[in-house]
Amino acid sequence: xxxxGRSPRRHWIVPLAVLAVLAIGIGVWxxxxxxxxSVARPVRASIIESIASSGRVRGVTETLAGAQAAGVVERLxxxxxxxxxxxxxxxxxxxxxxEARAAQAxxxxxxxxxxxxxxxxxxxxxxxxxxxxxxxxARAQLAQQQSSLAQAEQxxxxxxxxxxxxxxxxxxxxxxxxxxxxxxxxxxIARAEHDEAVTRSRVVKQQIAAQQQAVAVAxxxxxxxxxxxxxxxxxVGVQEARLRTLQVGARPxxxxxxxxxxxxxxxxxxxxxxxxxxxxxxxxxGGVVTAINAEVGQTVGSQGVLQLVSTEVEIRVExxxxxxxxxxLGQSAVVSSTAFPGSTFAGSVREIAAAVDxxxxxxxVTVAPMKPPAWLRPGxxxxxxxxxxxxxxxxxxxxxxxxxxxxxxxxxxxxxxRAVETVVQTRPxxxxxxxxxxxxxADDRVITNPAAIQPGDRLRIRPSTGRGEP
Length: 470
Prior knowledge:
By secondary structure, the protein is α+β, with helices and mostly antiparallel strands. The chain is 41% helix and 28% strand.
């Protein structure tokens, strides 16, 4: 009798079929739950890295040109925008103080000459009486000059106190203006409120400039009265010496002293006349007149008739202190202006400030322009790109792949078919993508459409043949 048996392989068919069905089911379930994404691998490229900021054009040398003493502007030879050379006459001041000193010196010389005449001959009783009266008159003039000097010194103290108050108001106005600019950028205040802060800052600066002129004029007046006190004291000495000479009679040595006083008075008169002629404002260097601070007929101090800026200019740029490590002397820069599109010129980093502005967190970088264009003006705002690395090797990723989470910049990469969040450090974007300096490898697969993707999501990669993509 023949027996029929099952093949051993048939025992495995059913379990294998079940496992296959389960595997297919799990695969279908995972496939249906995965999210479609596009990915790209970072592309290594050589790029130019730079620091972009705005800068202010100013002269390498700037000054407020004035004469040696205060006075009233009598003649003005230049206008705003004129180019001048070193030593060129800019203005003439009418110096009443210097002219008064010259008149006093002339009077002192006349007195010294009269004294010499008197000691050379006998003395009359009437001359003694007149000499005593002149001594009293000289002492009264000295007391008056001393009183006027005290009042002038008090005026200086008051003017400096007012200047300090205006300067404190100016610092407050500058801080309020900076705050208003930040709030305006964020849309938290109206343009009118920002304009009010700008106006307030400008008004306070004008008040400071006017008060500085007032301080300069007050100090000049003090110097003038000190000169008057010195002249009055000298006159008292002369009159007292003359009286003593008349009282004791002339001696050979007295005659010689009188001659010496005449010579001293002649020298003092020559100095006073020279000072009266020195009220001429001249250019200390060649440059451009950028502002006229006093017109004809206005009173000015020893400085401040006009503002002069040297022909050679430089650009001051405020750079965030976080960029300090990337800055170095001699780095090249590209300068442009929104007012002159398409026109750029080169520059070089000449100086990096030794200290950081603690209030703003910035450091001042000075850029020397090379072959500046004709449109460049002192006080102008320009755009400056300081090239920190002309050939930096960086990984580039698409701009769309980046997103900000708090104060971090992150990308999503694919690992084991899931989205993984990675923090990256970037540089300013280029036309080919965003440079990444830390956080990614060249083999990473970066998700380029991360808007609807969350870390941990299961992913299904869309096939693509684009540049930098798998």
